[in-house]
Design a protein that fits this description.
The chain has helices spanning 3-33, 68-77, 96-106, 125-132, 152-163, 172-182, 203-217. It is mainly α. Helix 5 (152-163) runs parallel beside helix 7.
Length: 225
């Protein structure tokens, strides 16, 4: 087994251990404060969860798209979602807030339980949960810009950090090389209109990278329905 695969397997165990530790900690907080589990409300305009059955998932703007099959699978598995108007908006820029939710779901990271006794920064459980797991580092994705479009360099950095948190990602070009070496990014990303690392990633591109990340960490279920 190669050293890179060993590192990825080791990191998967770290993620699972971190997730279980976070769950235990929050259960203790929940029980000691005697509070009811709150409902996490998505911000206005956020995607909504699509149909539970694979063959019931249809979007008016996805048929024939280069990432159609991956998008349907992502929605079915719960790592992505469509909009109330029946669209997925695959070529729309993915916001940092959307991506953190998708990333946390992809890695099966439990969410922060927000309550009167536990204030979560920006009232958003996803970035905080990823920080708790060691994936988002200090200074990454500042709260004041959480609703802005996610840059491709930021998407790659988070993907690399999920695989090897101990490896400092470095500059955007270095991050791209590491993402390609790990298998998160192909040399010529399909469907990519621009190769600029400082341009925003689309929702379709986010889905593809997250599914590759799941594959590398052994978290993706078989595609047979």
């Amino acid at each position: 087994m190669s050293k890179s695969k060993i590192r990825m397997q080791r990191n998967r165990l770290k993620l699972l251990f971190a997730a279980s530790s976070i769950v235990l900690m929050r259960r203790i907080i929940f029980l000691t404060t005697m509070l009811s589990l709150p409902v996490v409300l998505l911000p206005a305009g956020s995607p909504v969860w699509a149909a539970a059955k694979h063959d019931e998932i249809h979007f008016s703007d996805v048929e024939g798209h280069w990432a159609e099959e991956s998008i349907v699978e992502a929605v079915f598995s719960g790592i992505a979602s469509g909009y109330e108007d029946g669209t997925f908006k695959p070529d729309r820029a993915v916001s940092r807030r959307e991506f953190t939710a998708m990333l946390a779901s992809s890695l099966q990271i439990p969410l922060v339980i927000a309550s009167n006794m536990e204030k979560v920064a920006d009232d958003d459980p996803y970035p905080q949960s990823l920080k708790d797991a060691g994936i988002i580092q200090e200074g990454d994705l500042p709260a004041e810009g959480i609703d802005q479009g996610l840059l491709r360099s930021e998407m790659m950095k988070l993907g690399v950090s999920a695989l090897e948190p101990e490896a400092a990602p470095g500059q955007p070009e270095e991050i791209k090389k590491k993402a390609q070496a790990a298998g998160l990014l192909e040399n010529d990303q399909e469907g990519q209109a621009s190769d600029s690392l400082e341009s925003t990633a689309t929702r379709a591109e986010a889905v593809i990278m997250l599914q590759r990340l799941q594959n590398l960490l052994g978290l993706r279920e078989s595609s047979h329905y």
